[in-house]
Write a structure and sequence with these properties.
332 residues, alpha+beta, 8-stranded antiparallel beta sheet
Length: 332
């Protein structure tokens, strides 16, 4: 099948009101496609779902160990956090350890999604800063690698040593030459791949073994840091954090903008990549939850899983008017 497949349905009463189509692949540690929906050869931008790949050179170069990075900092390097104090305080300290500050980040300011942080800024009439940006942890990692390499300050430039190292790691772990790139919301290049390429990358993360080489060691450290600190990868009420907690150590999850999602399943040595073509987050969360229920790492009865996989649709009076649910194709 080369066209997107209908993966998620939105029902109002007994009437199918809307549908979301997309592509998804499950790959094993050998890079083989175990199951697919839609087109595995579809070229995509993985957006923030690629952050663990972008963090590989941080460890492989020796920069992480030279800087004495903790598991919390490694998790933040892979994070799309919501700007809560638990995120911004840690990024601030990380930068201070390098003698750097907010002005050294190139990600741009962003109003935090965390309610308390947002209300605090509004009440004090304070503008958000770059540390509030959801990618500030990744950029702190970029700066750590930049310092280790003795490179220039413009670390988001396509030809900067940081980005050339990331592209090399990205192409190696996806098993394909990247056909192009886009500039992400945080100003860094985001390299394109096929759906199968991102599936292979996640399968490689899932099958990595400590002591089996520099690349595998780096992959193990990053996935374990994310699993150890799910609250730093996203934040309270966020799908990545809640579904990782629900998986109880069986899965690492990471979302990306425009309805991309990946999952790493170390016990089964499987990787998942998912893209909803219309960019709807409600659909990507439903679909990734359904795939992980299918693979046995999530329990459909868990409230945090139902919240994503089968959420009720309510009206302004609080009445349940329908539900969002995975399509029959996704559950086959």
């Amino acid at each position: 099948m080369t066209q997107p497949e209908q993966l998620v349905e939105v029902w109002r009463g007994d009437i199918l009101e809307s549908q979301h189509a997309g592509h998804a692949v499950i790959c094993n540690a050998k890079g083989e496609i175990v199951e697919a929906w839609g087109d595995p050869d579809q070229v995509i931008l993985p957006r923030s779902s690629a952050k663990m790949v972008q963090s590989l050179p941080l460890i492989e170069s020796g920069a992480a160990d030279a800087a004495g990075l903790t598991t919390e900092q490694l998790a933040l390097s892979c994070a799309s956090h919501q700007g809560a104090a638990i995120h911004t305080d840690r990024v601030t300290r990380w930068l201070a350890e390098m003698g750097l500050g907010d002005d050294d980040l190139l990600c741009g300011p962003q109003m935090p999604d965390d309610r308390d942080a947002k209300v605090g800024l509004i009440k004090t009439d304070t503008s958000p800063c770059r540390i509030h940006n959801n990618c500030s942890g990744k950029h702190a990692g970029f700066l750590t690698l930049t310092r280790h390499l003795g490179a220039g300050a413009d670390y988001v430039d396509l030809d900067h040593p940081v980005q050339t190292a990331i592209k090399a790691a990205f192409e190696d772990i996806t098993g394909e030459d990247s056909p192009g790139y886009g500039i992400d919301g945080c100003s860094a290049p985001n390299f394109a791949s096929t759906m199968a390429g991102m599936g292979r990358a996640m399968g490689a993360f899932a099958g990595a073994k400590a002591g089996a080489g520099t690349r595998q060691d780096a992959a193990v450290r990053l996935r374990e840091a994310m699993m150890l600190h799910p609250e730093l990868v996203a934040g309270e009420t966020r799908a990545c954090t809640e579904l990782m907690r629900a998986a109880k150590g069986k899965a690492v999850l990471k979302t990306g903008a425009e309805a991309f999602f990946v999952a790493i399943l170390p016990d089964q040595e499987l990787g998942v990549a998912l893209k909803i073509t219309d960019g709807a987050t409600r659909a990507s969360e439903c679909a990734i939850a359904a795939i992980l229920v299918k693979l046995g790492v999530l329990d459909a009865r868990d409230p945090m899983v139902k919240k994503r996989m089968n959420p009720d649709v309510k009206n302004f009076a609080g009445l349940t008017t329908g539900e969002i649910r995975p399509s029959a194709a996704l559950l086959r």
